[in-house]
Amino acid sequence: MLPSNRLLRSVSVRELVRQLNAEVLCRADRLDLLVEKLTIGAMNVSSALKYFRKSQNMAVVTGGDRTDIQLAALETATQCLILTGHIPPRPSILSRAEDLEIPILSVDLDTLTTVEIIERTFGQVRLQEAVKVDCTQQMMAKHFDIERLMSQLDLKPAVTL
């Protein structure tokens, strides 16, 4: 059996854009970043910072009017910021995201619907990204015994001429 791997469960920002029908507000050149975790920014900023600092490679979903949460997310290990309600962020948020190379997405959806779509997306393993293919190959080489499987299935290796 292969061990669990967070990278293999991750989704690209590009896939989130597609699934959410999101508008990319900045850093369209960084849509290949991989998101391993979803975080919802619906609390006060002090609690949000503590919570955000515990995660890596996350997407943060928050309201377009929550500038405080948006700034907190940008100062942590955020791979993308997803703003709900189709409310444009302040120019200072866009500028900071540009500097930090973090894509900001805008959706014309409420937070709950956005989270539900993202959760479904995480449930679908995709091996389209080269880093995931490499990771799978390394895991198979380390943890998978093909000879044992062939023996258990009573199969013989193919003979090549």
What's the short story on this structure?
With 161 residues, this protein is α/β, with parallel strands linked by helices. 45% of the residues lie in helices and 17% in strands.
Describe what this molecule looks like in 3D:
- The protein has 161 residues and is α/β, with parallel strands linked by helices.
- The protein has a single domain, classed as HprK N-terminal domain-like (Udp-n-acetylmuramoylalanyl-d-glutamate--2,6- Diaminopimelate Ligase, Chain: A, domain 1, 3-Layer(aba) Sandwich), CATH 3.40.1390.
- Helices cover 45% and strands 17% of the residues.
- The chain contains 8 helices and 7 strands; from the N terminus they run αβαβββαβαβαβααα.
- It has helices spanning 6-9, 13-20, 45-53, 67-74, 91-100, 111-122, 130-143, 146-152, and strands at residues 11-12, 23-26, 34-35, 37-40, 58-63, 78-84, 104-106.
- A 5-stranded mixed sheet has the order 2-7-6-5-4, sandwiched between helices. A two-stranded antiparallel ribbon has the order 1-3.
- α4 runs parallel beside α5 (91-100).
- The longest helix has 14 residues, at 130-143.
- It is elongated.
- The chain starts with 5 loop residues before the first helix and ends in a 9-residue tail after the last helix.
- The mean pLDDT is 83.
